[in-house]
């Protein structure tokens, strides 16, 4: 819709009345009714994956922009894209081709079980990939893990996707424990440039762990 509106704005000036009417029509398309459409989430995510170079920081930027959109559909696409990024880096075994979708917190925690930072750094010898991975985890933390809803609010806002945004205390605690353990492993990762280690440590100590400060009393 945004792209179409921009294209309309680029029409010749003498067609200003037509441009204005077309723009109003395009911008008034009621996308909200498609916000909870699994098919729309799949198609939009698929289009982004296939048509836009989403490696590395490009993927992070796309997710970050979509996650703060006023469109709920785009926020769902942000979560779906995040799991695309996790799969690209961790390469978990897949039994069959699945549609792009919003996954549950249990699925996210399953990726953490596949991840051993020490092993990843040694096998890949790629601190950039490790940084990209941690940034994806940080984005998911902000979009899902740290969000709190009462039951009615969760069901009302997310409808059939409510379970994908329902975070139980034990799940939040599991992520907290993983962060504490993994932050200590960062110091064991060898690098020719100490700045690399500092950047990785900052992700934990500045971007991720402090978000738990307000709820530490809830974590046993």
Task: Spell out the key features of this protein.
single chain, globular, 66% helix, 220 residues, 2 domains, mainly alpha
- Estimate what percentage of residues fall within beta strands: under 5%
Query: Which sheet architecture does the biggest sheet show?
Result: none
Chain oligomer state:
single chain
Summarize model confidence as the mean pLDDT.
Answer: 80
Helix coverage percent of residues? 55-70%
- Total strand count, please? 0
* N-C termini distance: 47 Å
SSE-based structural type: mainly alpha
- SSE pattern, N- to C-terminal: HHHHHHHHHHHH
Based on Cα principal axes, name the global outline. Answer: globular
Q: What's the gyration radius in Å?
A: 20 Å
Low-confidence stretches: 1-13
- Total helices: the number is 12
Total tally of structural domains: 2
